[in-house]
Write a structure and sequence with these properties.
mainly alpha
């Protein structure tokens, strides 16, 4: 059996199943011989199910579908293919998408965004989304608007925060290397710095 790197976030059930299918020492008996499946494979691979019925229910719950016309109890998944582990990444994205559909937009967002909850809530409020809106019911116009805000959101400073909310962080860009009037780098034209990247300390 070859060693593969599996996509981050892929449920362990899929990984265990894939290792069985990808193992050349396992012949078709794991599919056709139900007695061998129950007596040898289910006890050997922990987490597949307590028994045959549990295993089948787990397959269906995880998105595997019955293959019709084979005359056997056979299940398949679009991107779950022996010898093609690269397709598992697409499968992981599909599973993440299906899972997201059931959640409220305000309570969840794709981890690839790398956002903090406070900023995400602000973006949605600015777009006008309801706090009860599910991902599944989000319109294409709203998705487009949210996308634009994530890429081109502008902010207007109106006032300073309350006392003790302000703080500075000693960054690593020396003030001697920027123009304090424009905040432009003296070393690289059209490169501007601001905020916590500047080497300023309030102590």
């Amino acid at each position: 059996m070859m060693t593969h790197s599996f996509p981050k976030g892929l449920h362990s059930f899929y990984i265990r199943i894939y290792k069985i299918v990808d193992d050349s020492s396992n012949n078709t008996s794991i599919v056709w011989d139900l007695k061998k499946l129950c007596k040898e494979f289910l006890p050997k691979y922990v987490g597949l199910g307590r028994n045959y019925l549990h295993f089948v229910l787990e397959l269906q719950y995880r998105g595997f579908e019955r293959v019709n016309g084979s005359g056997q109890l056979e299940f398949g998944y679009e991107n779950f293919v022996r010898g093609q582990p690269h397709r598992l990444r697409k499968m992981a994205l599909q599973l993440e998408h299906c899972s997201m559909q059931k959640h409220k937009v305000f309570n969840s967002f794709p981890p690839q965004f790398g956002l903090v909850n406070r900023l995400w809530s602000y973006i949605l409020s600015r777009e006008g989304s309801s706090r009860d809106t599910l991902w599944a019911s989000l319109s294409n116009n709203s998705l487009s608007s949210i996308s634009d805000l994530l890429k081109h959101c502008t902010f207007q400073v109106t006032e300073k925060g309350q006392y003790k909310e302000e703080f500075v962080t000693a960054g690593r860009v020396p003030l001697s290397e920027i123009s304090l009037k424009t905040m432009e780098s003296k070393l690289v034209p059209n490169l501007f710095f601001a905020g916590e990247v500047l080497h300023v300390d309030g102590v």
